[in-house]
Structure prediction request, 434 residues.
Amino acid sequence: MRISELSSLSGVPVATIKYYLREGLLPSGRALSRTQAEYDEAHLERLRLIRALTGAGGLGLARVRRVLEVIDDPAVDRLSVLATAQRAVPPVVVAAEPEPGESRGASSRLRAWSAARGWSLDPDDPLLDQLDAAWSACDDAGIGLDEGRMDAYADAAERIAQIDVATVPASPTPAVRQVVLGTVLMDPVLALLRRLAQQHLSAERAAGRSGGPSPRP
Amino acid sequence: MRISELSSLSGVPVATIKYYLREGLLPSGRALSRTQAEYDEAHLERLRLIRALTGAGGLGLARVRRVLEVIDDPAVDRLSVLATAQRAVPPVVVAAEPEPGESRGASSRLRAWSAARGWSLDPDDPLLDQLDAAWSACDDAGIGLDEGRMDAYADAAERIAQIDVATVPASPTPAVRQVVLGTVLMDPVLALLRRLAQQHLSAERAAGRSGGPSPRP
Prediction:
């Protein structure tokens, strides 16, 4: 197909497609003449992916480039799939650098909590610094997030992660793709489901019903 | 206390505090002289809250201002707590405006799914447009998010919302505060718990254990 058809099928303007081509985010088409090129399904798929990542995923182009590089890399070690994927996605929280003399790593509260939970984690994982910062922010804002409530949220997070992990393909390259895209694109879905579930439960409560889980069809 | 002590207790630089004072995000202190003012615990608390919202919460100052206005508003109707709070927080996904002639509102897939689930929702809720966009982005990226998987994620979201709703105070003004801050500041905590739970479950799987939920202490 020509670039105009690629544009109408993907909903991405021709000027934007040309920009992605110049930036190397989208591979060149097969040259038909000095000014025309032919594109195929793979181009359309890649363009839809870029649009999903910049749109609902909220990523900037530099981060999209990094995500695409990781997804396209055939040399991923089976064991490092998760680490590779988690490094490719943007940090959730930009945690402050430790002060000079202050050690990096989780606070004693977070270490004690995750140990009591029995979670197998790398103590140097930057995600722990981010969780420390996010937990402290809840304290600073005066919303009570004690260990018990953290455990209740972690129970729900484990259910989500079970679905995530169960749907990861066995071979490394598609697995990295699934984990990276599942992280970037499912975070907004989950945040929205949380808000809608709050509305549903509040409406149930206001109507004098239990506010418990809705019956499954 | 003087502004220097406010700065050292909050960790916010004096220049930044002065900027918040000029912008009206932080109320003025009690004037001691033409150049000096006295601040109290309420200033310190507000400053910690602003830092939490701009830091882990990831909000810009315009959005912080809106959140503070909503939190400070004493005239909140008991029934509209959730709607008020959800309007104050930034959208999760910036959904595209509908094309001319295209109707606003959830797609038929999303409407059928939420109806089958029995969720009590306002059909004109902009959150539904956002969820539509986020779901389409998953399709565009080729990560399989069918109705069954959406239901499994929604089950987990309901557990989270149950904790959220159960910890909301009964009177409207603190309730709005709790819901707004709990949304802005708990989204990153939940996203991080999801990633850490993925790591824990992957490590358990690699070690040949079940990968099921960890035993509770």
User: Anything to note?
Assistant: Chain B touches chain A through 96 residues (CB under 8 Å). The CA atoms of residues 92 and 130 of chain B lie 7 Å apart. Chain B has a mean pLDDT of 85. The first strand of chain B starts at residue 30 and ends at 31.
